[in-house]
Amino acid sequence: MQNHQNSLPGFGILNQDSPEEESGAFLSKKRASIGIGIDYGTSNSAAAVFDGTKVRLVKLERYTVIMPSATYIDKDFQISTGQGAINHYIESNTGRTVELSAEILGESRTTTGQIGDKGLPEEGGTQTLYGQSFVDGGQQGRLFRGIKRLLGSSDSPRLMVFDRAFRLVALITPLLLRIRKSIEQQILDGVSAPEAADHACIGHPVNFEGSAENRNRAALGMLSEAYGYAEFVNQSYYPEPIAAALSYLHENQEQPAQSQLLLAVDFGGGTLDLCVIRREQSDFEVIATHGIGLGGDHIDQVMFKKLLFPLLGKGERWKRAGEDREIETLFPFEEYEDLLLNWAISYMLNQNKFTTPLMKRISVGDEASIKFQRLYDMIKSNYSYLVFQCIKELKAELSEADSAKLDIPELDIEFELNREEFEVMIGDLLDKFSQSISDLLQRVKLESSDIDLVIRTGGSSLIPAVKRILETRFPGKVIEHDPFTSVAAGLAIADYEGLGEKLARE
Fold first, then answer.
1. What predicted TM-score, i.e. pTM, was given to this entire model?
2. Which of 12, 165, 274, 447 can bridge 158 by disulfide, Cβ–Cβ 3.0-4.6 Å?
3. Mean pLDDT (whole number) for 195-217
4. In terms of Cα–Cα distance, which of 273, 255, 253 is closest to 264?
5. pLDDT (tens digit, 9 = 90+) per residue, 302-326?
């Protein structure tokens, strides 16, 4: 994917490379009268407008410019988005009893083998056909978060909402429609000169999550379709870490006395995106980019595994009848793990094959039975989303304090976790974070000492251990830049200057 460049107010752009490639050729583009940037993120979304002088963030929620990337669809197929979607889900689903039943596929009719007096086969009976999937009959609605992480997966083309299959595009579009309406309101309120909100520069990670070879093209194709349904008829696309750097350079236009190398680190909910930029007076050149599937969601899953799995029965033993004797083995907790870690479909655990072993193990009445009772209650009362929210809050609190409390009264769980324990827990992910920086620098034959400034942004960059890794490696060179809004601001500038790339139509 080739990005383009143009002169900017106060500075210019020499080159921008495609992901994982070297810099490209110069191509000037026409400026827009108003730049619109949209950062549709894994966890949260933001938008901004730029009039050539000032970037203004768009209020997406009632009191804030940050909107959760969430979509809720109820039984009547009424849709809500953002924080309202989360509120609807919590109010209608959390704490209720899950009611699973087999999915009805249709009816099978049999005949007696005889021909009736009307010349037609006589009906012998009718039987309902059930599928292998299960339907949660008590579910009032479905909540979807982290859809962006699925765009690069070849095995998740549709998600079921009650009896209907929804394409990922259909789950994203309502969010984008809301963003467009908010942008229109901001423009009409006189924040910027009147202009239709039918164009935007859209951010994308260097690499989408997934293993498919064509995942970036496929993901961008789905995004383009969703933005089209949201009436963004003139779309362009721009890498998120470069947008963050662009935002920083706009706010800091003082010209350096000599050439500078900048490293932008955008660590969000689903991906880690990096880029190296060379700045020379009023110009800059993108040297290289790098991106992997590593973000806050991955940290949350590790915390769930290491903090809560032992409190839910992992590692405990149980006895069951053998052919000639009673057999004692580890309880098969691994059969529950994948569904537990995916709160959106964890209700599937409410099947006899999962709940019957739990009830049998609980009936033993030993100390470990308490753990299995927690797991049973979590499954039956649909507490998965609540648990993950508690984990997210714990993570955020540990960014501000040396210790924090995980309190889940619904499961009778309460304990303190200090920051050192948290950092040990996510040590492998921190190593992966550090290694990604090494991989990028090694590819462009740079040492850490060659970097003059590190621009740190993204929600996961607020984790103290992440800050410390960067400060240790680049002492005195790291600055924090608008963790939740820098990308949207940079995209608005890119749109104004015509820097984004149009998607090729096949």
1. 0.85
2. 165
3. 89
4. 273
5. 999 999 999 999 999 998 877 778 8
Which CA distances in Å does 124 have to 112, 116, 221? 5, 12, 51
**What angle do the packed helices 464-473 and 427-443 form, to 10 degrees?**
30
Pair type for strands 164-167 and 453-457: unpaired
Name beta bridge partners: 326: 321
Q: How far apart are CA 17 and CA 25, in angstroms?
A: 9
End-to-end CA distance of the chain: 14
3-state SS assignment for residue 433: helix
SS (H, E, C) 414-430: EEEEEHHHHHHHCHHHH
Kindly give the residue spans of alpha helices, DSSP state H, lying in 130-200. 168-188
Q: For residues 501 and 289, what is the distance between their CA atoms, to the nearest angstrom?
A: 16
Q: Which residues pair with 320 in a beta bridge?
A: 327
Instruction: Name the E strands within 70-153.
Output: 70-74, 79-81, 100-115, 121-136, 141-145
Cα separation, 230 vs 173, whole angstroms: 6
Residue type, 262: L
Name the 3-class secondary structure at 2. Answer: coil
* Per-residue tokens: 9: 């107010």
Whose CA is closest to 51, among 65, 37, 63? 37
Mean pLDDT of the 412-433 span: 97
DSSP string, 245-278: HHHHHHH--PPPSS-EEEEEEEE-SS-EEEEEEE
* Other C-beta atoms lying within 10 Å of the C-beta of residue 502: 12
pLDDT digits (tens, 9 = 90+) for 44-58: 999 999 999 999 999
pLDDT, tens digit (0-9, with 9 covering 90-100), for 161-189: 877 888 999 999 999 999 999 999 888 77
pLDDT at 307: 97
Burial of 80 (0-12, 13-18, 19+ CB in 10 A): buried
Q: What is the tens place of the pLDDT at every residue in 326-346?
A: 889 999 999 999 999 988 788
